[in-house]
Each structure stands twice: as C-alpha cells, then as structure tokens.
Amino acid sequence: MVECSFTFLRAIPLISMTDNQFSFHFVANSGAEKRAISYASTIYNLFDTVLSNKQPADRVIGQYFKEHKKHGSKDRRVIRESLFGLFRWWGWIQHIGNYQSPATFLQMLTIAAQLESHTWHDIRAAWLEFSDISNNAEININMLLAQSQTQDNDDVTSKLAQFHSISSLTNVTIDQLLPDWFWLHCQVAPTDKQSFIQAMTSRPPIWARAQNRSTQEVIARLKQADIEATPSKYFSDTLNLGYNSINLNQVAAYTSGEIEIQDLASQVIGQTCHPQANSLWWDACSGAGGKSLQLYSLMQQAGAEGRIVASDIRRHALTELQKRAKRAGFKRIEVAPWQGDVLPVASNYFDGVLVDAPCSCTGTWRRNPDMRWIDEVNAISDKPALQLAILSRSAAAVKPLGELVYATCSLASVENEGVVNAFLQANPHFELETITHPFTQTQHSMLTVWPQQANSDGMFVAKMRRVK
C-alpha cells in the first residue's frame, strides 16, 4: 500500500491505493461529511476506470452496483448522476487541473454538481470544504459559495458564464463540450450549433412504444403504477416516460410486453421503413431487436402480422431478442445468425431489408457522455468500409421493387451520406426514396435526426428501392 499526504482545509487526508483502488480519508464531523467522502472515493474509482481502461461508464457502474448491493436508491442516484455529470461537463472541467490530485478531483465534483444543479447540498458543501479550494487561484470560491444554493439557468451559455465566473478560465468555449475531432466529421449548421450543444449537455427523457394495446390504455396502466406517461405528437404509439429512473422489471405493462423502451429518434427508423401488413422484412443487424419488434408492431397496426427475420453476429443479442419477442407474444420473428460473410437468408426474397449498421454512436452521446472522451477519431474513420460492406452484402436479399433502409446512430457524414452515395454508385439498380422528416415535415433524400429537434438521440436514415 502506498500512502500520500495532502494538506486540505480541515484535516490531513490520505489516499490509500490497493489494486489501483483509491479511497479518501478525512476526519468527518457529520454523517453528511462521511457520506460525501465515501461517494467521492467511489466516483473517483469509477471515473478513473472509465478513462484509464476506456470502458463505457454505464457498463462500469452497472457492474459496480451489481457487486455492491449495499447502496440504496439515493446512494445510487448520487453516484450515478455525479459520475455522468463529470463526463457531461468534462470539456470544461478538465482544464481545472489533474483529476488524479484529490483536492482537484473534489473541486471538479463540486463544480460539476453546481453545473448539474444537483440537490444534495450537504454533500456538495462537504466536497467544497474538503477540496482545499482556497489553494487554487483559478477557482473563485466566493462565486461558487454564492451560487451553491441556487438552481441555475439550464441554458448552456448561462452555464458557460457561470463556469467562467467560478474558474476564471475565460478561454473555455461551448464547443469544447465535445472533442475537436467531432466537429471535423459532424457538420452542424452554424445556426443550430448552440441548440445542438444545449441538447448534448442535457439528458433526453425515457422514450417508449406502446404495443399490443392502445397508447391510452398503456398510459392508464402505467398511471396505476405511479408512472406518468404522455403521448407524442409525432407517432401514435410513442410514449414519453419522463426523466426518472424506472425499474422496468417491476412494471406490469413492461413484463407483459405492452411497452418497449426505444428512443424517439430510433423509432424514426421503423416509421421510415413503414412495413405493410403481411410483408416480409429482414433486420440484418438486429442487435437485441428493438427495431425488429417495432417493425412487427407496425405490421400489426397496418392490419395483419407479417414476418421478421433478425440477424446479428452476436448470439447473446439474438437470445435477448427472442426473450423480448416472447414477452410481447410476437410469434413470427425468427433469428438467423450471421456466420462469416455468407448471407444468412435467401437472396432476392424480402419486401424490405433494414441495415442498422454498426457505427461510432455519436448520436447517442447525450445518454453516454463518457463516450465522447474515451473514443477517438478512429471510432468514425474506421467504420465506413465495414458499413459499406454490410450494406452491399445485405442488399442482395432485397427482391425486385423491394426496399432497402440504411440507418446509423451516428452524426458523421462519412458514416452516413458517404456510405449511401458509395453504395448507389456501385449499385445503380437501387434508387433513393424521398423521406418526410417526421418532426419538421421537410422533404429529404437522406435524413439526419438531430437531438435538439425533438429531445431525442441523433440518428441517420436513407431509404432506397430496388428498381431493376
């Protein structure tokens, strides 16, 4: 064990390190101070694991909670929201100093909590007091203390002004909330940049779909479980479940297959496919099957169940799809795993083929703010060749006059328009179909759904038809 001492405002703390796990030790004079230091130690270890090992934060924290069942719901909320808050504002906070310094890390926690308007004021106050903030000439402690009891404006420019006042780092800009390489590959219109960044620094709500029952029936059933759900003006089966965490396994509407969690932008893909009654569709990159279930549900709404074949290289994902289909009572969803490059389904056979290709997932950074700091530019640049190969291979399954839909949850043009244009150049027997943007009603040959347009993730979709 290695021990290092640092001078703080109230005590002499120690950081102990065993197997790369750090813990902060202070003289705590209250229960709140004890909890604050325990939280800080846990959050530090999780944060460092994510950055050092480049592991997704949701996976890291999920494993931690699985192994440490002692935490109650309040503990989990403080740990989870503080961790993700650090990543959400890391583009600014990282300029304060080295997070591996205990005093600096506590300063970062305090400022992130302020920017997030977290309500655990006693914990924030303890972090602030223990952080030795008076020794950091860049931090305006009076400004931080004066604002620590207020709820701040959610506007990102107001947050920036607040950060400038607290930190004196006036060269920090809103663009820095995303890495430089993002702006090189994701072309955001100048008039939309501020609203886009505003969306990317806030959490989207939990979006869901009603299936097997009407939307109003599902809303009523959710209300009985004290879950407030509101319908969307965009799609008749879409539900907004708000921002609070929900234990779905305790929700009867979920366990009986009457709702599925699916982001609004993701739902745009199935709506763009617009499968007809009794049609035959292949979901070529199905994952755990969210869009396969949506396609099937849309066929039901059109008047009659068709058939879905779902494929993926990951067997465990297909197993999860089968569980979800069984829960919903969808009996005509089959699985056909990819095995190498050989097409797992028949050629010239399907009315429609959906290729939701593996991608950089930049469109999901609202929900996963850590990914913008653990990914590098090759998360984008490495994908187009693979995406084009999958799209080209999958297109062989489309029958004459059938439809081919290409989608990603990326905002990078090289993964989206670039792939589609390359495919069309090599496959003149496919032509683009016009898509109506469901949120703006504008017409597009290829559609990017931006997070700020309807409080959702980001998504891309293009629809083609085999004409020869």
TrEMBL record:
Q: Which residues form a coiled coil?
A: none
Output one GO MF annotation. rRNA (cytosine-C5-)-methyltransferase activity
Keyword line: Methyltransferase, RNA-binding, S-adenosyl-L-methionine, Transferase
**Methyltransferase: is it a keyword of this entry?**
yes
Where S-adenosyl-L-methionine binds, per the record, is at D312, D356
Question: PROSITE patterns, alphabetically?
Answer: SAM_MT_RSMB_NOP
Pfam families hit by this protein? Methyltr_RsmB-F (PF01189)
The family database entries (InterPro entries) matched by this protein are listed as: MeTrfase_RsmB-F_NOP2_cat (IPR049560), MeTrfase_RsmB-F_NOP2_dom (IPR001678), RCMT (IPR023267), SAM-dependent_MTases_sf (IPR029063)
The cross-references to SUPFAM superfamilies, in alphabetical order and at most eight, read: S-adenosyl-L-methionine-dependent methyltransferases
What are the positions of the active site?
Answer: C409 (nucleophile)
Got a GO cellular component term for this one? cytosol
The GO biological-process annotations, alphabetized, read as: rRNA base methylation
Q: Where is the SAM-dependent MTase RsmB/NOP-type domain?
A: 194-467
The family assignment reads: Belongs to the class I-like SAM-binding methyltransferase superfamily. RsmB/NOP family.
Give the protein's recorded name: RsmB/NOP family class I SAM-dependent RNA methyltransferase
Q: What is the lineage of its organism?
A: Bacteria, Pseudomonadati, Pseudomonadota, Gammaproteobacteria, Alteromonadales
